[in-house]
Amino acid sequence: EESQQRAAAEMVYGVVRGLRFWDFKSAQQTWSWLLPVFQQVLNSVTLETQSDWDLCFTGASNKADPNRLRTLFELLVTPENLVSQGAFKESSYLLFVTKCLSQHWRVRELYTRTYDILRSHWDHPYNNVRHQIANTLATLHSMDIPLMGGPDSDWNIGSGFPTKSQFLDEIIPMLNLNYHNPEFKREDASASVTPSTTADNTPNTSSEDVSMATDIEDEDSKKENRILETASLWILNLIRVSSATITTDMFRLLPYLCQFIGTETDKDVSQSCLQALCYLSVCILPDSAIQPMLDMTKKIAHSQSYKSKLSMLEYIQVSVFTNFPKIVMNSSYRDQVQELVLSLLKDENLSVRQKASKILGALLHSGFIQEKEIELLLQQLRSRIRPKMARTGKRFKKKEVITDNSKDQSMLHHSGILGLCAFVEAYPYDVPTFVPPILMELSTHLNDAQPVPLTIKKCLQEFKRTHQDNWQEHKTKFTEDQLVVMTDLLVSQNYYA
Predict the structure, then answer these.
(1) Hey, how many other C-beta atoms are within 10 angstroms of the C-beta on 480?
(2) Exposed / middle / buried, residue 356 (Cβ in 10 Å: 0-12, 13-18, 19+)
(3) What is the C-alpha to C-alpha distance for residues 6 and 19, in angstroms, rounded to an integer?
């Protein structure tokens, strides 16, 4: 069976490639014989022979006039063949259609027809079919390339073809944020009335009604997850297929991608979102896309989900250093990135604060934050950990602040400690002039409430590890009093002393 189908694929490939040398009448007679054969063969494709027919369709349509292959395309692009069969047959047909339509700009009507057929199947129940739908969508959107260097330009290579913005306008209303975020108004409206809350607030509600409402909610959630997985796979396939840069519309999916990374409920969706976020982060952005990207990350920072914030920090870290020259040369972009990291340094979640501290250290180490801004940043961080003093006569006393938000004060205090530790860890092979005073100041907070002492101890251990090889050179940057303190901090005390 496998050898016979391979032989048939090779013969059909040769016949289709040779039809371009035949006259119209002979070609039409050959197609009238080939179409039933194609239909019969495609219904009997197996997993072992799928690659053979893939090569057949790829070779037959490569560098060929699509008008001469119109009969073949009409056979493939039908609702009965694409989405009305079993999972394997549907994915096979979609694979063959993708190979045939790839880079054929003269079949715009077939592009549009294929998109219209797939429009109602973003949430297809079969995983392999969703993967192939995303791959086909990337091919259909590969012609959506704006010209003249601006997003507002009317010049587009794929005028009349399916567009990325059209696809995003259709799927984003089908998605939902799992956590409250005041920056996204639609979520408030959609989360205000859900089947579960309606069932709980109704006084005369039976257990069957509650279970039915829960089942409906679960089904809706599964549908949204499948649509998000299709969108995630579409992003990474589009970046692979298209030679054009990404558009600003694609950042509209960023908050949905960030919220699903690291979830245990649906690992397939989580993995797809992670891959899409990785592909987006390593793209070289055009000038017109940097500000929308920063705006969207600032909106995600207001989310109540710490996983969304962690994913956003991972994304912004890679994206900033991928587009380092464009961002560092613009003072507005630099200030926005710095403000975003410093704001998350005060986040209520410890993991988010620690990640923001690592990014701050990377920005300092790379020279992203300029030297004239370092002193102002140090003053801002020290103001978070130093108590405010009030003058009474000729003496200064610690100002008593009567407040109930002791948790907020402790987080603010810890953010200042993390910021100073970032300065220490940002220079693993050098000791700038401002590092010794920072170390002295950190040593005075070793007896504070947790997690401050643990953070400082990890910072001192890292400082010792990175500077011990050239300590004879580095210790010249310290005064004698500072060296005594550093010796007490870095050298373990002898038990028998």
Answers:
(1) 6
(2) buried
(3) 20
Do the beta carbons of residue 228 and residue 256 sit within 8 Å?
yes
Cα-based distances in Å from 338 to 342, 345, 358, 378: 6, 11, 13, 13
Looking at residue 426, its pLDDT comes to 92
Phi-psi region of 181 (alpha: psi -120 to 50; beta: other; left: phi over 0): beta
Handedness of CA 76, 82, 84, 85 (dihedral sign): positive
The average pLDDT across 39-48 equals: 83
DSSP line for 242-263: -SSPPPGGGGGGHHHHHHHTT-
Inter-CA distances, 304 with 36, 180, 228, 377, 406, Å: 58, 6, 20, 27, 20
pTM over 0.85: no
Residue type, 59: G
Prior bond of 79 cis (ω within 30°): no
pLDDT tens-digit series, residues 69-79: 888 888 888 88
* Between residues 54 and 245, the one the model is more confident about: 54
Average pLDDT score over residue span 193-201: 37
- Spacing of C-alpha 220 from chain mean position: 23
CB atoms within 10 A of CB 95: 21
| Model confidence pLDDT, tens digit, residues 421-443 | 999 999 988 898 999 999 999 88
Q: In whole angstroms, what is the distance from residue 52 CA to residue 45 CA?
A: 9
What is the structure's pLDDT at 316? 94
Separation of alpha carbons 145 and 368, rounded Å: 32
Q: Which of 27, 53, 21, 51 is nearest to 40 (CA)?
A: 53
Residue type for position 203: P
Q: Quote the CA–CA distance of 259 and 303 in Å, as a whole number.
A: 9
Beta strands at 395-398 and 389-392: parallel, antiparallel or unpaired: antiparallel
Buried-exposed string 199-219: b where 16+ CB fall within 10 A, e elsewhere: beeeeeeeeeeeeebeeeeee
Q: How far is CA 89 from CA 32, 44, 185, 233, 444, in A?
A: 23, 9, 41, 20, 69
What do you get for the CA distance between the two ends of the chain, in Å? 84
Q: What is the C-alpha separation between 279 and 239, in angstroms, rounded?
A: 7
Q: Which residues contact 94 (CB under 8 A, 6 or more apart)?
A: 82, 129, 132, 133, 135, 136
pLDDT digits (tens, 9 = 90+) for 295-325: 999 999 988 888 899 999 999 999 999 999 9
Mean pLDDT calculated for residue range 452-467: 90
Range 461-470, long-range pairs (CB < 8 A, 24+ positions): 462/424, 462/425, 462/428, 463/424, 463/425, 463/439, 463/490, 464/490, 466/428, 466/429, 467/428, 467/429, 467/431, 470/429
C-alpha 112/C-alpha 104 separation (Å) is 13
Q: Which of 370, 380, 306 is nearest to 344 (CA)?
A: 306
Determine phi and psi for 140, rounding to 5 degrees.
-65, -30
